[in-house]
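Working notes for the structural subgroup meeting. M.R. asked for a predicted model of this chain before we commit to crystallization trials. I am recording the input and output together here so anyone reviewing the notebook later can reproduce the run.

Input as submitted:
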Amino acid sequence: MKVLFTGIQPTGQLHIGNYFGAVRNWVRLQHEYRSYISIVDLHAVTIPYEPREMPDAVFQLALGLFACGIDIEKTLLFVQSEVPGHADLTWIFNTITPLGELERMTQFKDKAAQHRKTVNVGLLDYPVLQAADILIYKGEVVPVGEDQVQHVEFTREVARRFNSRFGDTFPECEAKLTASARIMGLDGDAKMSKSRATPSPCWRPGRRSGPSCPCPDRPRPGPAHRPRHAGKVQHLLLPPAGHPGAGAVRGHRPRLPDRGHRLHRLQAPVPRNLMAEFDPIRERHQALAARPDRVREALERNAETCRGDAKATLLEVKEKMGLSRTWKI
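Returned structure, recorded in token form:
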């Protein structure tokens, strides 16, 4: 069985974009591969964060992923920082990675633009850690969106470079593009992101716009409320490709709010279909939340397995590099 690796940052709550863009696909693929799914907290600390909030963010993300259908008994969902081998292999890969390749990475440019005052070496080295994440488990398949293909190609190049210099060790992983359409944010210009998105009551199913609406144009007494982003949110009114409700609304293009129309008057079967999808998830979430020890035990058990797998890879790597063949934690 081929090895699949993917990761997700604990930088915010799971949202509909995460689910349809990635997690739903992982739930399906976990039965076809030996699946490693990492909560990549080491990646998350490359941008400003609140240390006191990190433990709960990691736990809540794990709880949410298990609730979405990640198999708590089968799939290796684990916390990245609990497997020291990731950082060890990153340093080794640093020694064979040209600086120029990192400076050309699109994600580094984007993150550096967002966090100009806090740009650090970790942001620059992010792709090397990603390569170590994948290759320490000899990952062969990496489910990604189009915006992450560059990182998979970088990982393939790292594997080729190491194999050429020290002998055949790592597979050249393949990007497996998700079948789901990209879920855009409320502004319609960028992919929905846990770290950039903030909840908007306007778009909760069955919720009317009101005084709590965070839109730039706050509602005032009057016949209509038309937020500035209304012209960009038609993608939120229809289910993404592959969603079970897509067929029910095929050919249905709800009219965006115009003068005299309120957002809550838009009629479409989307909320019903979404609830049919998410009600079982909510029920599983409630059941697991009532048993937090089960979630923690699964994470600890999986981390122990991953430490064993990481040790085998690192010992092989160190031997081929002429380094001391020991690795203890």
